[in-house]
């Protein structure tokens, strides 16, 4: 705590909530959530990563063992059974804490169906959080359902990972339209932080074409940093480590550290 106060006198507290979403599955949301969080933490920022996906990939990818959070996780806080603070767990990185999730979340959409203001549930919980972070990062499930809408309502900005493949932009219009609706109805301050090109394969000419295409259509809304397809990135979740702990010299680690710097530059 003392260290935190000392540091905050030097570094302006940013307190930004970033949601990582794309209803398309397997595009690199969780890989980005874990590794962006870890890279920002390594750059001396205090980070809370919220695993808002019932698959629990951000939780397992950070090496958390299930029995530590089976009975007390994000779901239990969302339904109001326990406080959000009580489900926060530490990770191997001192600046990175996580709120884990499990399959319990699957039922929540149905359980909340008749509840008033259900879309603002997460925002209310975060407003009441009695700990401070420089960034709160939310890893969303591959859908535009209840959980993603809650994350969009709670967030200041959105990162959309886009895989460098043929159908990359398919569905993007629908996602951006959802953002527009959320902005109009529930969260006027929501910003599109940027589109992040992921799994870029240098040797694949299609990947080059897709990248050019996306940049042509979406221009400055696309991050300069491109995440390469990198075997080390796909290996590290099974070791329960972010890439900067698993192999800091890998191209994947360098790319996510570059992304963290690009985001920090954009905020200053
Ligand atoms: P879901 O929609 O199911 O939540 P996701 O969008 O979170 O998926 P990830 O889980 O991050 O996507 O990635 C999907 C798969 O691709 C995983 O096996 C992951 O390890 C792998 N992967 C992600 N990014 C890269 C990369 N840059 N290089 C190599 N493999 C990657
Ligand atoms: Mg995921």
Class based on secondary structure composition and strand pairing: alpha/beta
How many beta-strand elements? 8
β-sheet strand percentage: 15-25%
Poorly predicted tracts of residues: 1-13
Element string (H = helix, E = strand): HEHEHHEEHHEHEHEHEHHH
Spatial gap, N to C terminus: 25 Å
> Helical stretch count?
12
Largest sheet, spatial ordering of strands = 3-4-2-5-1-6-7-8
What Rg is obtained from the alpha carbons, in whole angstroms? Answer: 18 Å
- Shape from CA axes? globular
**Biggest sheet details:** 8 strands, mixed
On the 0-100 scale, what is the average pLDDT?
92
Ligands, deduplicated? adenosine-5'-triphosphate, magnesium ion
As a percent range, the share of helical residues equals: 25-40%
Explain what you see:
With 268 residues, the chain is an alpha/beta fold. It has 12 helices and 8 strands. The protein has an 8-stranded mixed beta sheet, with helices on both faces. Helix 8 links the parallel strand 6 and strand 7. It binds adenosine-5'-triphosphate and magnesium ion. The site of adenosine-5'-triphosphate has 20 residues, from helix 2, strand 7 and helix 10.
């Amino acid at each position: 705590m003392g260290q935190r106060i000392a540091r905050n006198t030097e570094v302006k507290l940013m307190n930004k909530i970033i949601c990582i979403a794309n209803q398309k599955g397997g595009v690199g949301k969780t890989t980005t959530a874990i590794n962006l969080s870890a890279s920002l933490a390594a750059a001396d920022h205090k980070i809370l990563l919220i695993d808002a996906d019932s698959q629990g990939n951000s939780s397992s990818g950070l090496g958390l063992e299930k029995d530590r959070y089976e009975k007390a996780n994000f779901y239990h806080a969302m339904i109001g059974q326990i406080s959000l603070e009580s489900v926060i767990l530490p990770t191997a990185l001192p600046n990175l804490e996580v709120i884990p999730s499990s399959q319990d979340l699957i039922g929540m959409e149905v359980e909340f169906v008749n509840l008033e203001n259900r879309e603002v549930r997460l925002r209310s919980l975060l407003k009441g959080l009695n700990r401070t972070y420089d960034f709160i990062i939310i890893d969303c499930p591959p859908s535009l359902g209840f959980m993603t809408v809650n994350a969009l309502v709670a967030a200041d900005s959105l990162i959309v990972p886009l895989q460098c493949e043929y159908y990359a932009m398919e569905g993007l219009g629908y996602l951006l339209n959802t953002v527009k609706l959320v902005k109009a109805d529930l969260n006027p301050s929501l910003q599109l932080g940027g589109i992040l090109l992921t799994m870029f394969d240098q040797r694949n000419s299609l990947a080059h074409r897709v990248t050019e295409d996306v940049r042509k259509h979406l221009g400055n809304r696309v991050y300069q940093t491109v995440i390469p397809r990198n075997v080390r990135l796909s290996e590290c979740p099974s070791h329960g480590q972010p890439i900067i702990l698993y192999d800091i010299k890998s191209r994947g680690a360098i790319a996510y550290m570059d992304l963290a710097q690009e985001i920090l530059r954009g905020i200053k």
